[in-house]
Write a structure and sequence with these properties.
- By secondary structure, the protein is mostly beta strands.
- The protein has one domain (8-160): Calycin beta-barrel core domain (Lipocalin, Beta Barrel), CATH 2.40.128.
- The chain is built from no helices and ten strands.
- Strands 1-2-3-4-5-6-7-8-9-10 form a ten-stranded antiparallel beta barrel.
Length: 162
């Protein structure tokens, strides 16, 4: 089956399309700093949204995979006037709705809604930045959780591999 054309509404975020791989650093007041590997895939089916899947794994000092870390999936939905809505779900029992803005090849997102299951850890807000830097996808994430305000949590630089 032939791949569908990219929906015209996706033009502001079409630079995200593809599979990205790389590494980053993480930390939080409640945990030790760590290095991680990551793979993100943005896809489309011809409709006005991107599909999104991210997988991360802990890396040792030599850059070898130790064990899986977080995974998340969802949909990126461009809106009029370069606004964007992002819906993410996590297997840890958390669902987030982000709203934000696209400015050239930079996207800034803030949580509008966070919902948690009874067994999920306390998580109250997130702030994410994504952007192209010298052809790579760079991102940074702040979170508010377990009694802490928005605090740096993770960042990475990924290269397009497909």
């Amino acid at each position: 089956m032939e791949e569908p054309e990219v929906h015209p509404d996706l033009e502001p975020i079409a630079f995200l399309l593809g599979r990205w791989e790389g590494a980053g650093v993480g930390g939080y007041p409640t945990i030790e700093s760590f290095n991680f590997g990551q793979e993100i895939e943005f896809g489309h089916n011809g409709k006005p949204f991107l599909t999104y899947v991210s997988r991360t794994w802990l890396l040792d000092e030599s850059g070898n995979r130790v064990r899986p870390l977080a995974t998340e999936s969802g949909y990126w939905r461009p809106q009029p006037d370069r606004q964007i809505e992002v819906v993410l779900s996590h297997p840890t029992g958390i669902v987030e709705i982000y709203i934000g803005e696209v400015v050239f090849h930079k996207i800034e997102l803030r949580t509008d809604v966070v919902a948690r299951t009874a067994s999920a850890k306390e998580y109250t807000a997130g702030h994410r930045l994504y952007g192209l830097a010298e052809g790579n996808l760079a991102w940074a994430y702040e979170m508010a959780a377990v009694g802490h305000p928005l605090t740096d949590h993770m960042s990475a630089v990924l290269k397009r591999v497909a």
